[in-house]
Amino acid sequence: MKEIYDEAIKLFKELENKNESAMIICQSIGYNGFKRWHRRRVKKFKCWSVGLENELFDNYRKQPNISAMPSMYSPTGLKEHLLSWDSCLENALGQLCKLSFKFLEATGVINCFIKKAICRLQKDREKVRRWYHRFEEVNWSAHDIHVLDMFLHEHERKKEKKGAKKDKNPY
User: Fold this and answer.
1) What is the pLDDT of residues 90-107, one digit of tens each?
2) If you count Cβ atoms within 10 Å of the first and of the last residue's Cβ in the chain, which end, N or C, has fewer?
3) Considering the entire predicted model, what is its pTM?
4) Is 121 within 8 Å of 48 (Cβ atoms)?
């Protein structure tokens, strides 16, 4: 059981690192909406990995043994980023589905953190693919890209604000 948790935690930490790298890259090429989109995912994967670590200790009294590799993610433009990110999401989804199946076989239930991550990655993959094809159709028009980036920036800002209110300690 511990091996399944270790593998899932390692994958979550790698996705956290890749999202952080993508966040920095998107900001460096001038896309703050994409930067914010990745920043929210950094937080999600960090929370999910901590949740798995806590679950492992609470249920099995074991500490995770992981060593996440530093992110090797380094595209230089938005087109390359979207193509690379699609591949990254596809790979992560495959790994998570295998882990989910192993977890289900071992415990008889689906792990909620893995399920949440699979749902998030599926939605993200759908969006990344849609964005890529939309930009291909308009021949990577800077105007269209910036319009989407501005929308994404505002949308993610609202989501972050909404999440901050939820996490606010009332005491």
Assistant:
1) 999 999 999 999 999 999
2) C
3) 0.90
4) no
Please give the tally of structural domains in the chain: 1
- Note the pLDDT tens digit of each residue in 38-75: 999 999 999 999 999 999 999 999 998 877 677 788 89
- Please choose, from the candidates 79, 88, 70, 74, the residue with its C-alpha nearest in 3D space to the C-alpha of residue 22: 74
In 3D space, the residue among 92, 8, 21, 100 whose CA is nearest the CA of residue 53 turns out to be 8
Three-class SS of the chain: CHHHHHHHHHHHHHHHHHHHHHHHHHHHCCCHHHHHHHHHHHHHHHHHHHHHHHHHHHHHCCCCCCCCCCCCCCCCCHHHHHHHHHHHHHHHHHHHHHHHHHHHHHHCCCCHHHHHHHHHHHHHHHHHHHHHHHHHHCCCCHHHHHHHHHHHHHHHHHHHHHHHHHHCCCC
- Quote the domain boundaries for residue 14: 2-167
